[in-house]
Design brief:
The complex is a heterodimer of chains A (238) and B (53). Chain A has 238 residues and is mainly alpha-helical. Chain A is 80% helix and 0% strand. The chains are: A mainly alpha (238), B mainly alpha (53).
Chain lengths: 238, 53
């Protein structure tokens, strides 16, 4: 029972963070659309940058955390790590959907095409499908220990792919722009734009933490229910 | 138009029509808001259900 109380507390704190993140994001929308200058060559579609980049950041961070938690699970065999990996993967997929929707909406007016089969875009799509497969695998396996072990292997494969996705713009010729903030030299962005991007990155990160906490807390609450249900069933049978 | 542009002083001309392709930007912002708020509502409803049980 104390575990269920702790799980409920985690979920409710996560919901508070989500609410905070959404309110902050409303402010970011105002900042980006009203108080950030329009880029000279791309015009208004460039403002998609302020949601596309943070969504990509959150998706890749979430998938990295899945891989780390999966590796730790295989080492420590703590079911909470498996639950954390599962929750983070779902949230990562949600941010991936934002990234894969806003990207083509930016690409069409700037590149003249919705999609280009170049290295960055293709590997990002592969990463998305890998984690869809992760979800499908979890749904297909009934035994919790087996499910955790098999999906941990897929989670680690995803972690291996994350740095590769980031480095594709350096390794291959690609239409996707090179990083302008997360790179060895100084960010090559005017302060007005960098300020909005950093604010948006912060709001999205708060949302990521909130979503993962809520999802994880809920999973633990549901685990507690299932266990108490089993226990009651066992008592009745005796 | 008086719109500021990145990397230049005020009053400079834009190389593109500032209002062009605004629909893509609006669509991206709406889609993002719908996904985030929608996911938050799904979790909120799941939390309330789990709390009652």
């Amino acid at each position: 029972m104390p575990d269920r109380v702790a799980a409920r507390r985690i979920a409710s704190r996560g919901l508070v963070l989500i609410a905070l993140g959404l309110v902050t994001l409303a402010g970011i929308y105002l900042l980006a659309l009203r108080f950030t200058p329009v880029e000279r060559f791309q015009g208004l579609p460039q403002k998609i940058f302020y949601i596309h980049v943070p969504a990509a950041w959150c998706a890749l961070l979430a998938f990295s955390l899945v891989g780390i938690a999966s590796g730790l699970y295989l080492w420590l065999r703590d079911p909470r790590l498996d639950r954390f990996a599962e929750s983070t993967a779902s949230v990562g997929l949600m941010f991936s959907i934002i990234m894969l929707t806003t990207g083509p909406l930016w690409g069409k007016p700037v590149w003249g095409t919705w999609w280009e089969w170049d290295a960055r875009l293709t590997f990002t799509l592969i990463l998305f499908f890998l984690f869809l497969g992760y979800r499908a695998l979890r749904g297909a396996l009934v035994d919790p220990e087996e499910r955790a072990r098999f999906s941990a292997v897929v989670g680690i494969l995803g972690l291996v792919l994350v740095p590769f996705v980031h480095l594709t713009v350096y390794l291959f010729r690609t239409v996707h722009p090179q990083p302008i903030v997360l790179k060895p030299s100084e960010p090559s962005l005017p302060w007005d734009m960098l300020r909005t991007l950093l604010a948006s990155l912060s709001a999205f990160t708060v949302l990521l933490i909130g979503f993962v906490m809520t999802r994880y807390g809920l999973a633990r609450m549901e685990d507690g229910e299932a266990e108490s249900g089993k226990r009651e069933g066992g008592d009745d049978g005796r | 138009m008086g719109k500021r542009r990145a990397g230049s002083g005020k009053g400079g001309t834009m190389d593109v029509d500032p209002g062009a392709n605004a629909g893509y930007m609006i669509a991206a912002y709406i889609v993002t808001a719908v996904i985030l708020v929608g996911y938050a509502l799904v979790l909120w409803r799941r939390y309330n259900r789990a709390k009652r049980e």
